[in-house]
């Protein structure tokens, strides 16, 4: 049985939706908060399929929401994990250079970290080797001691428990089909496969489907989601990896490059890829025939970006699609560590569950920052890609305190 009347309806049971619903109950303890999740359980997609890295915040320019939220998000998520006694590896991160051309970008990242108040240090090659004896770097590296790793599946389950304990009503297997904004009456109708719900406000935290739902409310019409698939390999190493090891990224793009990550449960993994996915839930190699129209739109959007190529997407797409091969992923990873394993790494490594990044695009360019849209009686989280998992708690506070509560008080 599902309630057909609620004060606020939240669509999407990932880390963003769960934290928003919980924050709403904290701010409005008497309100009926109904969270809708189309899968059998919350956090089935990006919230449990990400790398588990708790970012520190040095990648982002100081004028972005990402820079404002990541430092707080790192602290808040770490506190949550410690309070719940979940797995946490406080292992830090090295960003390593491979050539002269990387050094300027490394300096830019260091300066961004300083501007954002992040604990980040430029270290020499010998100092980097003291932190991680297997690391390869050219002249110097960036050291971020506050970067950590947790288990996203554990975190998602704990966030569900918290939301339920706070009194959030969670309805799984419930898909949003349409939205009717009756702002004249002060209500919004949410049509689902389980009935139509009347509410005072609607929150769209639907991840891969956030653009489609926003468009039903005439919000964010200039945006669309372009999904990117992230593949990881679990790799047996000859010695324990002490810290995460990342390359210097292409600063035009919102991707951080194939890297080595310490696993919260032990061992190490390499990835993710950033290859275009040809449907929003295309976890296998090819999308199903039933998603033909969706695939056609994604291909059209991708070709448009490759044609304009203002962010180097043409080279990225061609390079990343080749990483369906283990050897291709590992050839990138080989630039970061010296002889990490005894045997044949391609033979001995195993694929982990893939994830799909709900990357927003606008006018043939990828959108780098978080994006939040506002409707008459609705709020839409349109872009919450990495470090969205790290930032979920402060983002929820921002959305509730600065968007939803003021609208309800009008």
Structural key phrases:
FAD/NAD(P)-binding domain; globular; FAD-dep_OxRdtase; 2 domains; alpha+beta; FAD; oxidoreductase; 25% strand; L-2-hydroxyglutarate dehydrogenase, mitochondrial; 410 residues; single chain
Kindly describe this structure.
- This is L-2-hydroxyglutarate dehydrogenase, mitochondrial.
- The chain is built from eleven helices and 24 strands.
- With 410 residues, it is α+β, with helices and mostly antiparallel strands.
- It has two domains: 1-52 and 151-222 and 368-410, FAD/NAD(P)-binding domain; 224-362, no CATH class.
- The strands form six sheets. The protein has a six-stranded mixed beta sheet with strand order 9-2-1-13-24-23, sandwiched between helices. A four-stranded mixed beta sheet has the order 6-7-5-16. Strands 19-14-21-22 form a four-stranded antiparallel beta sheet.
- α1 links the parallel β1 and β2 (33-37).
- The longest helix has 21 residues, at 388-408.
- The model has no long low-confidence stretch (mean pLDDT 93).
Summarize the structure.
The protein is α+β, with helices and mostly antiparallel strands. The protein is 33% helix and 25% strand. The chain is globular.
Question: How are the elements arranged and paired?
Answer:
Elements lengths: L7 E4 L3 H13 L5 E5 L15 E2 L10 H19 L4 E2 L3 E4 L3 H16 L5 E4 H7 L8 E5 L3 E3 L1 H15 L2 E4 L3 E7 L4 E6 L2 E5 L1 E4 L5 H7 L6 E8 L2 E3 L8 E4 L11 E4 L5 E4 L3 E2 L15 H17 L4 H9 L4 H8 L11 H4 L1 E2 L3 E8 L2 E2 L4 E4 L3 E6 L4 H21 L2
Parallel strand pairs: 1-2, 1-13, 2-9, 5-16, 13-24
Antiparallel strand pairs: 3-8, 4-8, 5-7, 6-7, 10-11, 11-12, 14-19, 14-21, 15-18, 15-20, 17-18, 21-22, 23-24
Family: Belongs to the L2HGDH family.
EC number: 1.1.99.2
Protein name: L-2-hydroxyglutarate dehydrogenase, mitochondrial
């Amino acid at each position: 049985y599902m309630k057909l009347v609620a004060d606020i309806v939240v669509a999407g049971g990932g880390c963003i939706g769960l934290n928003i619903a919980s924050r709403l109950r904290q701010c409005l303890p008497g309100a009926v908060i109904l969270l809708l999740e189309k899968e059998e359980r919350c956090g089935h997609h990006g919230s449990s399929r990400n790398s588990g890295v708790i970012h520190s915040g040095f990648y982002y320019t100081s004028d972005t929401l990402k820079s404002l939220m990541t430092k707080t998000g790192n602290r808040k998520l770490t506190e949550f994990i410690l309070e719940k006694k979940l797995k946490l590896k406080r292992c830090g991160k090295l960003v390593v250079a491979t050539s002269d051309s990387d050094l300027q970008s490394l300096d830019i990242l260091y300066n961004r970290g300083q501007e954002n108040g992040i604990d980040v240090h430029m270290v020499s090659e010998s100092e980097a080797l003291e932190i991680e004896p297997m690391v390869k770097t050219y002249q110097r590296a960036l050291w971020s001691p506050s970067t950590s790793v947790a288990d996203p599946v554990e975190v998602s389950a704990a966030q569900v428990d918290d939301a339920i304990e706070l009194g959030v009503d969670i309805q799984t297997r419930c898909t949003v089909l349409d939205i009717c904004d009756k702002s004249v009456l002060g209500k919004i109708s949410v049509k689902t496969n389980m009935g139509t719900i009347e509410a005072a406000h609607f929150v769209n935290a639907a991840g891969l489907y956030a653009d489609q739902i926003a468009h039903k409310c005439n919000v964010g019409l200039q945006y669309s989601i372009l999904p990117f698939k992230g593949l990881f390999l679990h790799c047996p190493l000859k010695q324990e990896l002490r810290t995460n090891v990342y390359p210097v990224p292409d600063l035009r793009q919102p991707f951080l490059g194939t890297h080595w990550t310490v696993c919260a449960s032990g061992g190490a993994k390499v990835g993710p890829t950033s290859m275009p996915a040809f449907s929003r839930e295309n976890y296998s190699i090819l999308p199903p025939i039933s998603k033909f129209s969706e695939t056609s739109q994604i291909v059209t959007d991708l070709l448009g970006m490759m044609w304009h190529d203002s962010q180097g997407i043409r080279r990225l797409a061609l390079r990343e699609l080749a990483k369906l091969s283990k050897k291709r992923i590992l050839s990138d990873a080989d630039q970061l560590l010296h002889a990490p394993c005894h045997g044949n790494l391609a033979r001995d490594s195993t694929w982990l569950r893939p994830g799909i990044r709900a990357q927003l695009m606008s006018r043939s360019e990828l959108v780098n920052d978080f994006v939040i849209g506002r409707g008459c009686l609705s709020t839409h989280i349109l872009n919450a890609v990495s470090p969205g998992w790290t930032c979920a708690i402060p983002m929820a506070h921002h959305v509730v305190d600065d968007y939803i509560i003021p609208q309800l008080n009008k």
